[in-house]
Each structure stands twice: as C-alpha cells, then as structure tokens.
Amino acid sequence: MSKIACHVLIVDDEEDILTAGRLLLKQHFASVKTTSDPYQIPTILAESSIDLVLLDMNYSAGATSSKEGLHWLKQIKQLDPNVTVILMTAYGDIELAVRALKEGATDFVLKPWRNDKLVAILKSACQQILDRAIVQAPKSNVPSTFHYGEFIGISPAMQRVYQTIDKVAATDANVLILGENGTGKEVAARALHQKSKRANKAFEKVDLGAISETLFESELFGHAKGAFTDAKEDRVGRMEAADGGTLFLDEIGNLSLALQAKLLSVLQNRQVIRLGTNKPRPIDIRLVCATNMPLYDMVKQGTFRQDLLYRINTVEIQLPPLRERKEDIKLLAEHFLQLYSKKYNREGLSMNAQTLRRLNAYYWPGNIRELDHAMERAIIMCDGTELHEEDFYFAPDTDSKPDQGNGEYTSGPVLSDGDHTLEALEKQMVQKVLVKHSGNITHAAKELGITRTALYRRIEKHGL
Ligand SMILES: Nc1ncnc2c1ncn2[C@@H]1O[C@H](COP(=O)(O)OP(=O)(O)OP(=O)(O)O)[C@@H](O)[C@H]1O
Fold this sequence. Notes:
Elements: E1 4-11, H1 15-25, E2 29-35, H2 41-47, E3 52-56, H3 67-79, E4 84-90, H4 94-102, E5 107-111, H5 115-135, E6 147-148, E7 151-152, H6 156-169, E8 175-178, H7 185-194, E9 203-207, H8 213-221, E10 222-223, E11 235-236, H9 238-241, E12 246-250, H10 257-269, E13 271-273, E14 280-282, E15 286-291, H11 295-301, H12 306-312, E16 315-318, H13 327-343, E17 350-351, H14 353-361, H15 367-381, E18 386-387, H16 422-436, H17 441-448, H18 452-461
Parallel strand pairs: 1-2, 1-3, 3-4, 4-5, 8-15, 8-16, 9-12, 12-15, 17-18
Antiparallel strand pairs: 6-7, 10-11, 13-14
The structure holds adenosine-5'-triphosphate (ATP).
Region (Disordered): 397-417
Keywords: ATP-binding, DNA-binding, Nucleotide-binding, Phosphoprotein, Transcription, Transcription regulation
Domain Sigma-54 factor interaction: 151-380
C-alpha cells in the first residue's frame, strides 16, 4: 500500500492511544511521531517537518473541560498556521469541538475512534494539504522562531514561563521573578503588565540597585517642596506614579535591611506619605519584583526579611539560564542575526554549523544579553558572508565543560591553571565578573566590592 506523503504527530497523555494510533497510522502516512507531553509540541514542530497534528482535548487525568486542547490548538496555529490540526474528543464534547473548528482546527474525531473512520478523516485532511502545496509555493520549513510577546524561545522551560505569565497576568497577585543576569526578567515583568487589565496604565520600573540609601524614600514615596535641601519643588514618587498600573522593583535583593523595613511598611498599608508631609495617599499598584540574588539563602543569613519575601512572592517565576535551554540558542542567534544584519546593512549573512555548535557549547554567563551583544559584535567583525567562530568573543575560561563525553555541560567559569600571581588572579576575576554582568560597570563593581572608579582603573591596568 502506498503511503501518503504526510508527517503526522499524535498528542495524547494515554500511552495506549499513542501506541494504537501509531500502529494504525504508520501503515498509511509517511511518518508518525507521538508524544504524551503537550509541552513538547513546540520542540517537535521546530525540529521535524510535521504536516498534521492529531491532538487530544483533555490532558490532566480526569479533566474534561477541554481547555488544554484549545490552548494547544492555539499554540500550534501560532507556531505554524500551515499545520493542520485534528482534534480527538469524547462523545458529548461536540459543542467544544465546534468551537475548536472556529479556532482553526480542520476536523475532529470521536474517541474511541473507528479505525476506518480515523484513517478516512486524516487522509482527506492530508489530501487538502498536498493540494495546497501544489498551488502554493512549497511549504516552508516550520518557523524557526517562536514569539511570546518579546520573548523568543520554544524550550519546555520557557513554555512553562509563558503559561505562568498567562495564568497570573490577569490577577493582581504580587510576582517575584528570579533568574541570572540577562535571562529576561524585565521582559517577563513587561509581559505581565501588557497582558494584565492594567496594560493601559503606567509601568514604572525602579532599579533598586542604582538608588542610593539617601534617595530611596524621596524616589519611591515622593517629597514636598523644602522637605530637604535639594527639594526645590513637590515631587510625585514612583509608587504614586505607578498608581493603577504596575510597579516593577528590579534588583530587590540589593536593598538594605533598613530600606526593606520601609518598603514593607508601605506595601502592608498600601499607602505612601511623601517626605515632608504627613498625609497618607492610597496607592493601587500591582507589584512585580526581580532579582538575581538567592533571596531564600539571604533570609537564612538574616540579610533579607522573611516577611518582605512572603509579601512579594505570591507567585514566583524562575527564568532558566540560557545554557539550560540550549534548544533556544539557535532561535535567538538567528533572531539577532536578522536584527543586526539589517541594522548594519549586511543582509544575506549566515552562520555555519560549526559556529552554532560553538554557541551551544559556551556557558553564556550573561545569558541572552550576552548572546545579543556577541551576535552584534560578530556581525560587525565578520568579513565574508558567513559568521565564523573567530568573529565572536568568548570570554576565556567560561566554556561549559563537557561531562565525560555525554555532551552535557556541567561546570561554570573557572580560573585557569598557570599564572597564579595575585595580579593574574585579579585580572581573571575582574574579567569574569564583567562578563557575568555583560559589561555593566555598576553591577560588576558592586559584586567585586569596589567603586566604579576603582573598577575602571583595573580595567585600564589589565587592558581589558
Ligand atoms: N527570551 C528572550 N527572547 C528575546 N530577547 C530576550 C529574551 N530574554 C531576554 N531578552 C533580551 O535580553 C536582554 C536582557 O533582558 P532583561 O533586561 O529582561 O534581563 P534581566 O534578567 O532583567 O537582566 P538583569 O538581571 O541584568 O537586569 C534584553 O535586551 C531583552 O530584550
């Protein structure tokens, strides 16, 4: 029997259904893949050329609302509108199946299915795909990029982040975003705001790492004219400015204990008093905080207040480091390649497989921000039409270390063997911290425990 040139993916959390479906359909179609985990859908679509997805409507055991099926239908259509989706639904779900048809599904089959009926439905859908392919340009490969707001990434870890943002955006719950530098904490905070009912009100970002102790109160709570020497006029604080919208407190882990107490008191009372006044003003804000510091350890060490932590962490979002979601590196690199080749009039540039392998092997201590800068630099430095390894700057001693040949990478930056003079160690340490903070002098100086001027002196001394 000749097979139809159609590649099918079956998604269902029941292994029996997957096995039965695979055995039946592989007799009729070019290839049949299966997965019991719908979170794998984006990865499979990106890696294989799938034409048709046979998608179950219900996932968690006993669930019958079919909401998940609709969710994944939308995701598939967003990832690649050309992929045909056929839903599997239980008897009685017909109304929902009709809704799914409106949302872009091509057809549905009732479970338990009749083999001849299932094959007939899929064959008819595949024939439509093939007819379409003849009249249209050949079907492009599945899209190489997946956008969720400003985010790019298809890894299961990022899918979970998108799901959490979708779930909590509509609520007023306080959200704490954790993750290394450059992992996209601010992007996540903005996505939360944009998807919330506060989207048309202010999004106020305050970088707590950059505010001095003395300016904290006036910056956050505002002041009245004459409240202190430099207070030439009344000033609205950032909390009031965020009224009705979202207040994003970045680098909350950098706040001193004294300031933590002041912040906690305002959050508890939901009102601010401008410096130099005694009139409380109510504030209606949605609070989003972020940090790359280990807040839970800091609570144990007594450097972060537990009561403040519990006030800000109603929902937590952990952004994974780039090295733990290697499937996103290629997508992000291609995105930045497109962006910067346009910016520098170098359209047509490409990246060879070896360069991509090198990007995959690197530790990316500065995460996406570092990849962004690395791509921009490589595009500027590149002579020909292809980006090569030599066009990139990879900080020394920050490669991931292959683990006993299994291709996984385990350790982070290490100091090299060889020169162990204090001078050499200082140079390596300054270099390492600069890379970690993607060249941000303020942050690097803070981590090294020196002033910005002292850091500039060392950069010059070591020729960095
Ligand atoms: N998933 C992503 N897709 C595309 N761009 C991203 C993604 N995540 C982050 N970026 C980009 O990387 C850069 C760093 O992101 P962002 O400022 O949100 O990180 P961060 O975790 O807040 O960093 P820091 O801790 O240093 O403040 C930004 O230019 C942002 O647009």
